[in-house]
Write a structure and sequence with these properties.
The protein is an alpha/beta fold and 216 residues long. The protein is elongated. Helix content is 34%, strand content 29%. The strands form two sheets. A six-stranded mixed β-sheet has the order 2-3-1-4-11-5, with helices on both faces. Bound molecules: adenosine-5'-triphosphate (ATP) and 1-O-pyrophosphono-5-O-phosphono-alpha-D-ribofuranose.
């Protein structure tokens, strides 16, 4: 039997992902060691391999088939636009993609005003403004601390993730519009879905059960 390879997202989603895998009997103790520099982990009994990667790289590994499955935020799936199947909502890592800014920027979102939008997610922002709102905007790509942009005058609004709302509150910004809800998803390589359908369906079935039990 060949190894099934699973790409997991580093950072915020990692701990919950490992917990969920553990709940369906997939353990990989070695991977929990925060000090390890090892990149790939093997579960010989289950014929599984795992690795942790930066979020935006997970859809890339999955599209190319270097990983059969992946766990990644919906924001990253939308932004990367890779060819893959999004098959399951894992129900954690819940947050929202929003257009935020000072209250005074609200009026700039009506009509066709040429405003600047700072974001780590240029494709999501482009799709929202150009296709959904029909508003021409200038997208400015940033790599973090997006909330700074409207404060220092780099942009009128931002397109960013809101979870608890603390970052907005502490910086005097507000949600002006909601783009979409987000959470962690399972993605599958399109060929693997056919070639390994039995093993993948079994794994998805087990995950579904755990999610249902957690919901109760
Ligand atoms: N408050 C939040 N901020 C950002 N991402 C969140 C939040 N809550 C849940 N998520 C989910 O977690 C994923 C990001 O996790 P990660 O820890 O890699 O954050 P990051 O800040 O984008 O990464 P990096 O530190 O590498 O820039 C997102 O893709 C999103 O789906
Ligand atoms: O609503 P909240 O709970 O405050 O969470 C939202 C904040 O968290 C994320 O930033 P992150 O911590 O990833 O830092 P970054 O801006 O450097 O990417 C996101 O980009 C927001 O800034």
């Amino acid at each position: 039997m060949r190894y099934l390879t699973i790409a997991l997202t580093k950072g915020r989603l990692a701990e919950k992902t490992l917990e969920m895998l553990e709940a369906v009997g997939i353990t990989c103790e070695e991977m929990k060691d925060k000090k390890t520099r090892k990149l790939i982990f093997v579960n010989e009994d289950l014929k599984l391999r795992f690795f942790l990667a930066k979020g935006p790289d997970v859809p890339t590994y999955v599209e190319y088939g270097a990983a059969d499955l992946g766990v990644v935020g919906r924001d990253t799936i939308l932004e990367e636009g890779r060819k893959l199947y999004e098959v399951m909502d894992l129900g954690f890592g819940k947050c929202r993609m929003c257009i935020c800014g000072p209250e005074s920027a609200r009026e700039l979102l009506d009509g066709n005003q040429q405003i600047r939008v700072a974001t780590k997610y240029p494709n999501i922002a482009k799709d929202y403004f150009y296709n959904k709102k029909n508003q021409t905007v200038e997208i400015i790509k940033l790599n973090g601390s997006i909330e700074l942009a409207p404060i220092v005058g780099l942009s009128e609004v931002i397109c960013d993730i809101v979870e608890t709302g603390s970052t907005l509150r502490e910086n005097g910004l507000h949600i002006l519009e909601e783009v979409c809800p987000l959470s962690a998803r399972v993605v599958v390589n399109q060929v693997s879905m056919k070639m390994e359908s039995e093993r993948i369906s079994e794994l998805l079935g087990k995950l579904k059960k755990v999610i249902k039990e957690a919901d109760r």
